[in-house]
Amino acid sequence: RAKQRGRDTYHVFDPNHDRLLQVRHEQRQRFLDALAGDELRLYYQPQIDMCSGRVVGVEALIRWQHPERGLMAPGQFLPTIEATPLEVDLGEWVLEQAMRQLVIWQSAGIMLPINVNISPSHLLLGNFSQRLGELLARYPTVPPAMLKLEVLESAAMHDIQAALTTMAECQALGVNFAIDDFGTGFSSLTHLRQLPVNLIKIDQSFVRDMLSDPDDMAIVESVIYMANRFQRPMLAEGVETLAHAKALIALGCELAQGYGIARPMPADELPKWLVAWPKRADWIALGRTH
Ligand code: C2E
Ligand code: MG
Ligand code: MG
Ligand code: MG
Predict the structure, then answer these.
(1) Rounded CA gap, 266 and 68, in Å?
(2) Which intervals hold domain EAL (predicted)?
């Protein structure tokens, strides 16, 4: 059998390969246990309108509360499951969890949309919009517009026709889209115009260094200019300081997310943060001073 022969061949040329495969397999098995057990958490990072100070939504970010290794960020475990069926299992868990959180917050009088990151393999699975419709039907009290899906620019571009079809189906259900890490992919302007996105998120790597690196500043300026020309709302990620905030407002970008505003936090810390935020006098209503 070809598969068997392939394995033997690997054995001949690389004795470490089987070991590597086994480690991968064990890591994935461990992640499956985490998913089935109670070790995954969603953290939430607020998104604000810098001009008014208003909180416009939150982004859900996955964390793994590992019994031995502590709180793990997605960079420590997502690569292991990338493009495997586990990525889809995780995606469905995250969506379900976000819907539950929306119900909880709704009953507490907190009406903030949740942005959920959708992996390319999940979005392009083929039955994504159908599964999303089923999910929404299980939570009839939650308006679909409370859910916003963040899709990587690169994912949308990978198979533009499939992405466009699926996104249109989801939008017909009332769900909104954001394009994540904008500026890091290679989308042409034509494609950007085609994409039915309700929000463009400027990648944090450009925003973070925009005040010290003229090239990054040029990219940020161009994205803001383009988004304004296409009349698409945009949000800057990675806003770490007040100086960033003021520069972005001056350039015409009013929505922001970043450590300077708030770090991602567990769901039960959000109500407290929402009360404390309006007291951050330096950050509130920047629009009035500019
Ligand atoms: P992303 O969607 O672009 O999320 C923004 C990342 O930037 C988050 O990292 C967030 O914690 C971090 N961040 C926010 N503000 C700042 C800032 O001011 N400075 C800096 N240096 N970083 C900031 P995180 O939580 O580690 O997530 C990394 C990536 O993992 C996300 O990038 C997203 O692509 C992916 N991810 C996170 N949660 C999920 C999920 O539930 N599903 C999928 N498929 N991917 C996820
Ligand atoms: Mg995101
Ligand atoms: Mg991003
Ligand atoms: Mg990113």
Answers:
(1) 20
(2) 24-278
Ligand 1 atom nearest residue 260's Cα: 18
Going from the Cα of 134 to the center of ligand 1, the distance in angstroms, rounded, reads 27
Q: What are the 10-residue block averages of pLDDT along the chain, 290 residues in total?
A: 47 71 89 94 97 96 96 95 93 98 97 96 94 98 97 80 93 95 72 82 93 94 90 94 95 96 98 95 72
- Residues 76 and 96: their CA atoms lie apart, in Å, by 23
Residues at CB less than 6 angstroms from ligand 1: 45, 61-62, 73-75, 78, 91, 94, 117, 119, 150, 180-181, 204, 237-240, 257-259, 264
The pLDDT of residue 2: 44
Instruction: Indicate whether this complex's ipTM tops 0.85.
Output: yes
Supply 13's token pair.
């040329």
* Angle ∠(273,103,42) on CA atoms, nearest 5: 55
Q: Which long-range contacts does 162-165 make (Cβ < 8 Å, 24+ apart)?
A: 162/124, 163/123, 163/124, 163/195, 164/194, 164/195, 164/196
**pTM for this structure?**
0.92
